[in-house]
Amino acid sequence: MADVRGQQQAKRALEIAAAGGHSLLLIGPPGAGKTMLACRLPGLLPAMTQEQAMQSAAVASIAPGGFSPENWGRRPFRAPHHTASGVALVGGGSTPRPGEITLAHNGVLFLDELPEFDRRVLEVLREPLESGHIVISRAARQAEFPAAFQLIAAMNPCPCGYFGDASGRCNCTPERISRYRDRISGPLLDRIDMHLNVAPVGRDVLMGGAQAERAESSTEVRERVVAARQQAAARGHGPNACLRPADIDTYCLLEKSARSILEQAIARLGLSARAYHRILRVARTIADLAGADTINAGHVAEAIGYRQLDRNATS
Hints:
By secondary structure, this protein is an alpha/beta fold. It is 45% helix and 11% strand. It has 16 helices and nine strands.
C-alpha cells in the first residue's frame, strides 16, 4: 500500500473491503491505478486459518498445476483474462474440474476489463457470489466445488476509457457508453457490494518524491482489518459480507439519523432490497473499523457513497 501514491478514497475502500470481505468494482480510466490497487488486497487480508489453508491446498491439488508447498497458507489471487471461457472461469469438462472461482477459494478473484468478459460467463458468477459454492452438472456426474472468493473487478468508464477526463479526449456518445455499461447486468452489479470511481493521480502527487506524505504500509492497514474482523467474530459470525438478512436485523442497529439518511437514499436511488442489505453490511464494517457498536449517519453516508453506479443510473 505504501507504493500507491494518492488515491486515498480507493485505499479506504480497499481497507473496508478487506475488513468485511466485501466485493468491489473500481471504475476509472487507463493508468488510474485500478490493477495496482487490486493487487494490494491480498496483503490486507488476515492470515488464513489452518482449515482454510488445507481447503486451498486441496483445491490446488486437483488443478492442472497442482499444489506447491511454498504456497501453503498464502491466500490465492487469481486474475483470468477477459477472453476466458465459462469452463475456465467456473469449472467443468467431461470430468468436472475446478475453475478460477474455485481456485480463488479463500482468496481474491480479480476480473480486469469486466465489460469485456462474455456476458453469459459473468452471469454464472451470480450464484457463487451469494452461496460460496458452485455446482457443475454433467450427464454422467455432478460435482460441487467451494467458491468462497472475494471479488474485485475493474472497468473503464466508457469504451475509449476517458469519459469525464479533463482533457476532453473522450468522443464516446451517450449511446455507446450506455451499451458498454449494459454489458454488465443489473443483477450482477446488485451483487457487488461497493462501486467506486477512481480518478487519475495528479502530476504533483505522482512526482511528489521525498516530499510526498508518507503512505501507510499494508501491515499497518492489516492491523485495523484484523481488529475489525475480530469484532465481527465476537458477534458469532464470519465477515460482514456474509451476514444473512436475519443477522442484519440483529447486528446492524441504526441510529435515528442513520435510518433517515438510508430511507432518503432508497427513495432517491430506487435501491433494491439486495442493495439495501449490502449497504447495511458495508456500514456495519465501517462501524467496526471505527470501534462503534451502532451504525451512525456518517457510517451509512460513507456506505452509500460506495454505490456509485446506482447513483450514476439516476443522474
